[in-house]
Amino acid sequence: MTAILRTEKLCKTFSNDGMQQHVIKNLDLSIDSGDFTVIMGASGSGKSTLLYALSGMDKPSMGKVFFGEEDISSYSNDQLAMFRRRNCGFVFQSIYLLENMNVIDNILTGALVLQKNTPALISRVKSLLGHVGIGEELWKKYPNQLSGGECQRVGIVRAVVNEPRVLFADEPTGALDSSSGQAVLDVFTSLHKDGQSIVMVTHDIKTALRGNRVIYLRDGSVVGEYKMPLYGTDDVTSRRDSLQAFLNEMGW
């Protein structure tokens, strides 16, 4: 497999009341194209900080981040903004849909940055909405007329409408109830089966089960990783037991 993301001696340091806090420490990591990589670890281990560095949302203090063959750690803020638009999709715990726009228009706000409002684009948006279970009866609804799970699925469509090379997710089910969270995870699984590269931060084992690789962080360093087959090709109970054993070994 070809590495789509790679770090070399990645470091991220924050200054807090004159004290230096080293959140990511000399981290070397490679993520292959097509992988569904899950980042786990205790609170404060550097999970979200790593995701932001990998996606170009934040610059490292030292070291390099390669996206394919591009060293994005050397980019200016303007270059990073354009790079993210063309290559990255984002799904967060907070959904950030625009309350004054309906479902279709919310998705088009992201798509129209790079594409023209053409019949082909509208057709793609509608096809994606159907793929995630958002029926035509909801397309003209506003966010306050949708459930949390429906809003998050709309957010996923907005994140993938421009066909990002990598979809980044930070606790995407953290604010959802069990049923809505399950529906959102099913969308991630479907996207992964279709070849979408995904990097996701989570503290939830049910969510982590959807990945094919789990990276465990402690104090800003990778201390272990666990690989799994494609979700749905093995027994879920044994998959959970094996992942739980790995996490227990890591001190989770």
Number of domains: 1
The count of β-strands is: 10
**Portion in beta strands:** 25-35%
Terminus-to-terminus distance: 29 Å
Mean pLDDT, all residues: 93
Total helices: the number is 8
Radius of gyration: 18 Å
State the helical fraction. Answer: 25-40%
Which CATH architecture would you pick? Answer: 3-Layer(aba) Sandwich
Query: For the record, what CATH class applies?
Result: Alpha Beta
What attributes does this structure have?
252 residues, six-stranded mixed beta sheet, single chain, four-stranded antiparallel beta sheet, alpha/beta
Helices, strands, pairings?
Layout: E1 3-16, E2 19-32, E3 36-41, H1 47-54, E4 62-67, E5 70-71, H2 77-87, E6 88-92, H3 103-111, H4 119-131, H5 148-160, E7 166-170, H6 178-193, E8 197-201, H7 205-208, E9 213-218, E10 221-227, H8 236-250
Helix pairs in contact: 3-4, 3-5, 5-6
Describe the structure.
This protein is an alpha/beta fold and 252 residues long. It has 8 helices and 10 strands. It has one domain (3-250): 3-Layer(aba) Sandwich (Rossmann fold). The chain has helices at 47-54, 77-87, 103-111, 119-131, 148-160, 178-193, 205-208, 236-250; strands at residues 3-16, 19-32, 36-41, 62-67, 70-71, 88-92, 166-170, 197-201, 213-218, 221-227. The strands form 2 sheets. A 6-stranded mixed β-sheet has the order 6-7-8-3-9-10, sandwiched between helices. Strands 2-1-4-5 form a 4-stranded antiparallel β-sheet, covered by helices on one side. A hairpin with a 2-residue loop joins strand 9 and strand 10. It is globular.
